[in-house]
Design goal:
By secondary structure, the protein is of the alpha/beta class. It has helices at 15-43, 46-51, 59-66, 70-82, 97-104, 113-121, 123-135, 146-168, 171-176, 191-199, 212-224, 262-272, 296-310, 318-327, and strands at residues 87-89, 92-94, 181-185, 204-209, 231-235, 247-253, 273-283, 331-339, 342-348. The protein has two domains: 15-104, Winged helix-like DNA-binding domain superfamily/Winged helix DNA-binding domain (Arc Repressor Mutant, subunit A, Orthogonal Bundle), CATH 1.10.10.10; 119-348, Rossmann fold (3-Layer(aba) Sandwich).
Amino acid sequence: MKSDSNKKNTIKPTPEQIKEASSKITGYFGGYFAIWTLDLGIRTGLFEEIANFLNGVTSSDLAKKKGFDPLYVDVWCRNAYGAELLEIQNGHYTLSPAMATLLLDRDNGAYATGTAQVLIGLRDAFAALRKRIKSGKRLWWNTAPREFVDAVAESSRAFYTRLLNFIDLRPELAQLLVRGTLVEVGSGYGTGLIRFAERFPKAKLVGVDGDSHSLKQAEFIFKQAKFDKQVRFVQSSFEDYNESEVADIALINISLHEARNKKKATAVMYNALKPGGVILVSEFPYPERPEGLRTPPARVMSGIQYFEAMINDQLLPTKEFINLLSGVGFKHIETVELTPVHTIILGHK
């Protein structure tokens, strides 16, 4: 008997169902413009300028202050207000303290601008997917759009802030870094290491990364900040780093999911730790089941999966990292959810 599985669905939706579906799609359209409005306001300094006006500022005065075109600025202000990025009172636009924190405070754990810039930085990669989805062609970080790579470094600031705050709440971890050694595998531009240098000035730091451009940027940042005596950098892939028993804490921040051989990369960090040392895996907690995908945080993580697919990997559920750690010998493993998009998996050697 011939299967009917390929027959066209002839069930007609009700007007209410169409209205509900249309409302969802329209919301996504609005979100697209909100992200571009956010990015434009950050890159042109409009948000920062508005924050200087305690009683707000009109769009025309804002344009004069910045030396910008008044029509463009007016359109931007109305979009920013519509997206609830700005408030308005008597024609004067203001930036609420909460929104100022999310958009302008780069050292706050809630800082969101970097993530918005990541989404904008992916525009060319998304356009390329029209062909890549057919060809299966991949890329790697050294061929990714530089604006996107820079945005990833910026977005990681909030992860490091939350991570440092977590360590401050765990005296036994902070004590390891008073005079101990931290090895970060996948250290990138040194965005996180420089924060550790500031917080723990007597700690020794080791940054491990396979990308020469990122290491050069990190070396420059440390030299500019005069912390270069506190750090050394090693160019190596996750799996090939081979120093033994040098670290009190081994850290890998939102990068373990990208390792070509995750078990070997985890074993490398086990080997790098001194006896009694601690591994901190800072990761996205991707939902285990499809039902978990229909929340705003999960949608963001699902969107990130497009780029992860381009570099031939995927974000993973927290359970996968627990299994990786236990599989190479880590004990007393625990997980701590810092936000809906950030979980720490901790293990002891």
